[in-house]
Amino acid sequence: MDSPAGAYLLAWEQAQLDEAVADLFGYHALQLGIPELQGLRANRMPHRWFALHETPEHSGKQVAVVDFYADFTALPFPANSIDLLVLPHTLEFSTDPHATLREVERVLVPEGKVVICGLNPASLWGLRQRRSRWYQRFGWGAVFLPQWGDLIGYWRLRDWLRLLSFEVDVGRFGCYRPAVDSVKWLRRWSWLDRVGARWWPIFGATYFVVATKRVRGMRLLGSQWRSVAQRNPATVPVVQQSQFAAVKNGEKDSV
Hints:
Elements: H1 4-21, E1 28-32, E2 47-53, E3 68-70, E4 82-88, H2 90-93, H3 97-107, E5 108-119, H4 124-137, H5 154-163, E6 166-174, H6 183-188, H7 191-199, E7 206-213, H8 241-254
Parallel strand pairs: 1-2, 1-4, 2-3, 4-5
Antiparallel strand pairs: 5-7, 6-7
């Protein structure tokens, strides 16, 4: 993340996060992992937390913005208690991404939002990562992204979300420049961001997803349900005694 390519990737993702979370309202928001991205800085919820996974990599390491360490497959929150969860590359670093996503579904409130950033395996960056891992088997060179686990494809992630009753609201790709380690060459390849977004959008180096937790059979009521005016009771016609007597006498006369 400290390389020019990493800074280029983080800049695009930070812009997407700021735009996505700015107008999401609620009370509790949580980001899991990647302190280089401030996924909640543009959000206005009163309670916002940042959590890191407790691993040997972070053991004893001070991170200025961290609120607590936690196992992402067993978050210290009750069910249906978080309004917004941000996962910037969290699933790629997780030892069990399925369990992490299930835990996200558990703690999110109905209609809560999850925001996910992931590296696209069907891209130049993904190709370089696979090639470097293959070379590493023979002791040739170093892995392009040494700390990253298996990359999760965009459509594969959508299938996981669908199985957990999430509905994808936003799905987009970005960063079409190759993963070069030179600022000069990154600038020379800048035209690919314009062309790639138009002609081969699904091959961007990273993808960005916003999804909503849906609960079948549940209907949320707004605050207006408390102030619904009661219907006026139907009026019952009252027959006066004189009218009743007149009708009765009329019946007798007719007889």
